[in-house]
Design goal:
about 675 residues, mainly beta, Thrombin, subunit H, WG_beta_rep, signal, WG repeat-containing protein
């Protein structure tokens, strides 16, 4: 018998907790959680479909069109270095077993790992999945395994496979669920169905209509009514879910409490422990609402993997005193310190009232470092450092985390391990500035700099001095060797700023505040002196540049400007569609092609992709949907337009992606 949810009656199990157990109900007088009820979430916001920031500056569409007409010619002239940097549009999609989807004349087919054709090009769109792909022909699709075998007996408007070998499908009546044998598990009559897969469990998020939903278990026997709008829903195990500051028992279909003024923070998922804030105190509880220890805390932190958490209590004067507790709520380190913080899972830093810190090993309470340091931190999983202040000068004791043995003393105030150069080195700072050290804590730079930054390449350093309004930067290798670049025929080792754009391609700003591109052949080309970042545009040898005023432009590998610094935003090319997004002034946004043409000729103020090759376009609030060929798919409207599955929803109407009205 097929499962129909409008006939479903929910069973509500009573929450049973023994009276003699300390609970948040009998000790704190809190109300038990109520039954989960139907919800009506807030209406979704479709105002930022492109995700591009708005601007108060508005320019005419004609200005944009004229600008792109000039730009279009620049797309036609290839750089002489294009072959060294070019990225093509992606025409293949690799599948899990080595077979791959390929594109030919606007259609997709399937080839074996050896290149043999398994399926001739016939799919208009493809969506790669973990164990196969969804292939669209016209406006419907099927799910295919990696060999091209169709797994469903018919085509649908959309198909979403799950990890449990079921398929969420959409036909003209709505969304439903099929099993691997094409048997209907959930009738296809719903507005939408989405999978929720966590902790090896599968639930279906079912929307009987827009903005209303509930969850149904994989075996379609349990229904959970939860409003999770704006919060992250997390499955803990087969009994409990968490949602923001809520603990939900999905077996009883109740929340832990119905109190409005309570806040619950999950602090140990494995052991199902939480920090409950109620009135003026915090309590250590489990997910059943049982109070673990008869102690009112000021603060309880997250438990670490070894089962310890920093915690505090307030003395009679209201001052917080810090210590460490275990999962039973017992004090492993007494609450008598100004502050406590973990060095690692087994060692805690304790800071006394004189603001001096030491360390304690948690398993036996042994003091490892005495309370004489102003700061104690870790460098990596083996080393830490402790800072001593002596007569207004600082020095550092480097110690092993395993046994707190001090192995080195260095005259600095702080240390950080390099995240580049194979992690073999450190950046050290003191009153003079920052210094690059090798892995033996020996200086690699002859002096200190104002700041040391990573880059411009993965394994190099920028050492920078700030002197009033002047910025002076030197480029170094991981060994501290200063690198030089030839600018206008002159070797230089000091710059205002330096960007390595690509291999052999640089941008520099000189101390005289002049900008230059240094090309692959060593040629120097004048450049805008306001550039702050340059990165690949993911097509050909184009690069997106951003100026210090936030404006975007496009250059090629010869440093030639393809699109001027006149845009609020330019996005990378989508290597499947060959389109890049832009915003001209925050009011006009859309896409341009690999030939520099505005999609749909720039006729519309706003153009946003809905997916599956269709686009929502808008002028003065008036909207419609077009396909890539500039053919109108839907009627005109002032209302919300959205792609739900494989169908376009416009007010009360539904259209397929080729414009067929669905009844």
């Amino acid at each position: 018998m097929r499962y129909r949810y409008w006939l479903l009656l929910m069973s509500v199990l009573p929450l049973s907790i023994h009276a003699q157990t300390r609970t948040i109900y009998n000790k704190l007088g809190m109300k038990e959680g109520g039954e989960l009820t139907r919800n009506s979430p807030l209406e979704p916001d479709y105002s930022s479909i492109m995700g591009i920031p708005a601007s108060t500056s508005v320019r005419s569409r004609n200005e944009l069109t004229n600008l792109m007409l000039q730009t279009k010619e620049l797309f036609k002239t290839p750089s002489r270095f294009a072959a060294n940097y070019s990225i093509p549009i992606l025409d293949t999609l690799q599948l899990a077993d080595g077979n791959f989807l390929y594109s030919e004349n606007g259609k997709y087919g399937l080839k074996s790992a050896g290149g043999a054709i398994l399926t001739a090009p016939k799919y208009d769109f493809v969506e790669k999945k973990e164990k196969g792909f969804v292939g669209y022909q016209s406006d419907t699709c099927n799910y295919f395994d990696n060999t091209g075998k169709a797994l469903l007996s018919r085509y649908y408007y959309s198909i979403t496979p799950t990890s449990k070998s079921t398929f969420i499908i959409q036909n003209n009546k709505g969304f439903g669920v099929l099993d691997a044998a094409n048997k209907t598990i959930i009738e296809p009559v719903f507005y939408n169905i989405e999978p929720l897969e966590q902790q090896g469990q599968l639930f279906y998020k079912i929307s009987p209509e827009a903005k209303k939903y509930y969850y149904v278990s994989q075996n379609v026997k349990d229904t959970i009514w939860i409003n999770d709008e704006g919060s992250f829903l997390k499955i803990i195990d087969s009994e409990y879910w968490t949602l923001g500051g809520r603990i939900i028992n999905i077996k009883t279909k109740r929340e832990l409490t119905s109190e409005k003024e309570v806040y619950i923070e999950i602090i140990d998922e494995k052991k199902q422990l939480a920090n409950l804030s109620w009135k003026d105190g915090r309590y250590l509880i489990n997910f059943k609402g049982q109070i673990i220890v008869d102690q009112v805390f000021g603060t309880i932190g997250q438990f670490n993997e070894s089962g310890y958490a920093v915690a505090s209590v307030k003395d009679q004067g209201g001052t917080e005193k810090w210590g460490v507790i275990n999962r039973n709520g017992s004090w492993v380190v007494p609450a008598k310190y100004y502050r406590t913080s973990f060095i690692n899972n087994q060692v805690v830093q304790v800071i006394n009232e004189e603001r001096l810190g030491g360390t304690i090993r948690l398993k036996d309470g042994k003091t490892l470092l005495s309370n004489k340091y102003t700061d104690i931190r870790t460098l990596d999983d083996k080393l830490g450092y402790a800072v001593l202040k002596d007569a207004n000068r600082y020095k550092i004791d480097v110690f092993t985390l395993k046994d707190s043995k001090i192995i080195r003393n260095v005259p600095f105030r702080s240390l950080s391990k390099l995240r580049i150069c194979g992690g073999k080195g450190f950046i050290a700072s003191n009153e003079a500035g920052e210094t690059l050290l090798n892995e033996n804590f020996e200086p690699l730079t002859k002096r200190a700099y104002s700041r040391i930054f990573y880059g411009p390449a993965d394994n190099s350093i920028l050492a920078t001095d700030f002197r009033g309004d002047t910025v002076m930067t030197q480029w170094m290798s991981c060994s501290g060797k200063i690198q030089t670049l030839k600018v206008n025929g002159k070797e230089s080792d000091v710059f205002n700023s330096l960007i390595k754009i690509d291999e052999g391609f640089y941008y520099v700003k000189t101390l005289e505040n002049r900008g230059y591109f240094i090309l692959r052949d060593g040629t120097t080309v004048p450049a805008d002196n306001s550039l702050e970042s340059i990165e690949r545009a993911d097509f050909q040898d184009y690069y997106i540049m951003v100026a210090d005023n936030g404006k975007y432009g496009l250059i090629n590998s010869e440093g030639k400007t393809i699109m001027p610094l006149e845009f609020v935003h330019i996005g990378k090319f989508n290597r499947m569609t060959g389109l890049a997004s832009y915003s001209f002034d925050g009011e006009h946004y859309g896409y341009f092609t690999t030939t520099g043409e505005l999609l749909f000729g720039g006729k519309y103020d706003k153009t946003g992709s809905l997916g599956l090759g269709v686009f929502k376009v808008e002028n003065n609030g008036y909207k419609t949907v077009l396909n890539r060929s500039n053919t109108r798919v839907t009627g005109y409207t002032y209302s919300i337009i959205e792609l739900v599955g494989g169908l376009i929803k416009v007010e009360s109407d539904k259209f397929s992606i080729i414009g067929k009205r669905i009844r």
